[in-house]
Specification:
eight-stranded parallel beta barrel, two-stranded antiparallel sheet, about 325 residues, alpha/beta, 14 helices, single chain, about 45% helix, about 15% strand, globular
Length: about 325
């Protein structure tokens, strides 16, 4: 069987099994569109609270401003109240701009955990499954969940996640993404792909693995994991969106195309332009400073370029940085 191949998530048919994972603060529309241009089959919004889906403020209204070319698209929702999360999923379907609903049961951020959100749901199978059941009843859209391999490293925690995953499959979810770290690990240590494989064999739904997918070679290697349907690429696609293009080429036994200096600069220009269209010039330059730090990875004078990117405040300064540090690489 080919490592990179078409796949279905419920009624949603995807051309390949490479997903762009949702990342708070990073998977704005601009990042999603660029990932799509490079070959990502499915992308997600940033994590959005159920309350904000139902009563969107200014920032959330921007997150929900979907353009025609931004499909297929999943909305990732979180919340501790099952009824509210179900209402949010129903509302997302009513909006007509989403192709899939994803429930976040994985986020390890302390503030989320303190409120019973995200990864905290993995500590109580009854609560997690009640939420999944309520959402499944509320929407006809394909439904997926994002979990971690456990809340902590105890056998009891691993058993709890198994109970949640197998129960969710019986309730009718269409796929799941499993991050190979525990919630308590946050992003420290290495992702455990053997644990992902063990969980994947327990259910008869597509399982996507996530964690430490930083290069195309990492992705190809992890696509050989037994029982895995595909991968969900997170940090490895930030500042390196061409990772999808590279994996697609390697999946076809081809040499992945190199990213020339001029192309990297043009991708950054396009990213900035898309950010301006999405959030306006004032915010775009500030967001681009953050992304620029990732785009600098692997270039000569990387440290100097990061310092220059961190200081820029105008489009003219951004262009100067591109010309000085990115377009003239040896």
């Amino acid at each position: 069987m080919k490592l990179v191949r078409p796949i279905n998530i419920g009624s949603l048919s995807l051309p390949n099994n490479l997903l762009m994972a949702p990342l708070a603060g990073y998977t704005q529309r601009a990042q999603r569109l660029i990932a799509r241009q490079m070959g990502a089959a499915l992308t997600f919004t940033e994590m959005i609270s159920a309350y904000e889906v139902l009563r969107p403020g200014r920032i959330t209204r921007k997150l929900l401003a979907i353009v025609e070319e931004d499909h297929p698209l999943g909305i990732q929702i979180f919340g501790a109240d099952a009824a509210m999360v179900a209402d949010a999923a129903a509302r997302a379907e009513e909006l007509g701009c989403f192709d899939l609903v994803d429930l976040n049961l994985a986020c390890p951020v302390r503030k989320m955990l303190a409120r019973g959100n995200g990864g905290a749901m993995l500590k109580n199978a009854d609560l997690a499954l009640a939420q999944i059941e309520a959402v499944r009843r509320a929407t006809s859209l394909p439904l997926t969940i994002k979990i971690r391999r456990a809340f902590d490293d105890t056998p009891e925690s691993a058993a709890m996640v198994q109970q949640i995953l197998t129960g969710a499959a019986r309730l009718g979810i269409n796929a799941a993404t499993i991050h190979g770290r525990t919630v308590q690990q946050i992003y420290h240590g290495k992702a455990d792909w053997e644990a992902i494989s063990h969980l994947a064999q327990l259910v008869d739904i597509p399982i996507f693995g996530s964690g430490d997918l930083m290069t195309a070679h990492d992705v190809i290697d992890r696509l050989t994991t037994p029982h895995l349907a595909g991968v969900s690429i997170a940090r490895g696609a930030i500042g390196s969106p061409w990772i999808f293009r590279e994996v697609l080429a390697m999946g076809d036994q081809q040499e992945p195309p190199q990213v020339a200096a001029a192309e990297r600069a043009d991708i950054m220009r396009n990213h900035y332009r898309l950010l301006i269209e999405e959030i306006g010039a004032y915010s775009a330059i500030r967001v681009m400073r953050r992304f620029g730090m990732f785009y600098s990875k692997g270039i000569s004078r990387a440290k100097e370029s990061r310092l220059a990117l961190g200081r820029m405040t105008t489009a003219e300064q951004f262009e100067q940085v591109l010309q000085e540090f990115f377009e003239h690489q040896e």
